[in-house]
Amino acid sequence: MSGTSSMIVAGLTAAALATVGFLGHQAAANVPPGLRHPSSGAAGAVRKALPAKEHPAALPVRSGTGKRVVYSLKRDRVWLVEKGDTVRRTFGVSPSTVDPAPGTYRVTSRSGAVTGSDGVPIEHVVRFTGVDGTAIGFSAAVDGSAPVLDPRERTGGIRETRADGVAMWKFATIGRTVVVVP
């Protein structure tokens, strides 16, 4: 009996596949001529709306040269850039209450694990400047949290995820260029 059931199921499956194939062929053969090729209409406009240079994750123009970290204040985004402007990794960050001025800096110090100015344990701290006594750098909260910003407190920790923190730690060694863009 199970052999008969299997044959019936196999036959019905084959018939269904043949029907779907036939209907697909019929649909393709009967496409109106105006729809056979992509037009320059809406789909073309979408492609043109986001050229590579304007894509939210695209490397900012005038962001330096060579192997570097690029930090965009406006986009709250970081790029780890190899020579030749090849982006190794890009990711969003949570900004601090104190921003560095746009410009070119160098990584000045690193700490494997410390407590942030907000009292949260952080790791993979990569510092590159200071503003009026507030150290500015990238870090990841050990618990994975984003900072709760109080504009009345001066903090310089630009928070990233733990995975992004590991990538930054490996890439941004002492002396590595950090370019801050608006």
Brief digest:
With 182 residues, the chain is of the alpha+beta class. Helices cover 25% and strands 30% of the residues.
Describe this structure in words.
This protein has three helices and nine strands; from the N terminus they run H-H-E-E-E-E-E-E-E-E-H-E. With 182 residues, the protein is of the alpha+beta class. Strands 3-2-1-9-4 form a five-stranded mixed beta sheet, with helices on one face. Strands 5-6-7-8 form a four-stranded mixed beta sheet. Strand 2 and strand 3 form a beta hairpin. The chain is elongated, with a radius of gyration of 27 Å. It starts with a helix and ends with a strand. The model is unreliable at 20-25 and 34-51 (pLDDT under 50).
Provide the fold topology.
Layout: H1 2-29, H2 42-49, E1 68-72, E2 77-81, E3 87-92, E4 103-106, E5 109-115, E6 121-131, E7 134-141, E8 157-160, H3 162-171, E9 177-181
Parallel strand pairs: 1-9, 7-8
Antiparallel strand pairs: 1-2, 2-3, 4-9, 5-6, 6-7
How would you sum up the global shape? elongated
- The overall strand count is 9
Taking pLDDT < 50 over at least 5 consecutive residues as the criterion, the unreliable ranges are: 20-25, 34-51
Tell me the distance between the termini.
75 Å
| Count of discrete alpha- or pi-helical segments spanning 4 or more residues | 3
Mean pLDDT across the residues is 81
In helices, the fraction of residues equals 25-40%
Radius of gyration: 27 Å
* Major β-sheet strand ordering: 3-2-1-9-4
| SSE-based structural type | alpha+beta
Percent strand equals 25-35%
Largest sheet: 5 strands, mixed
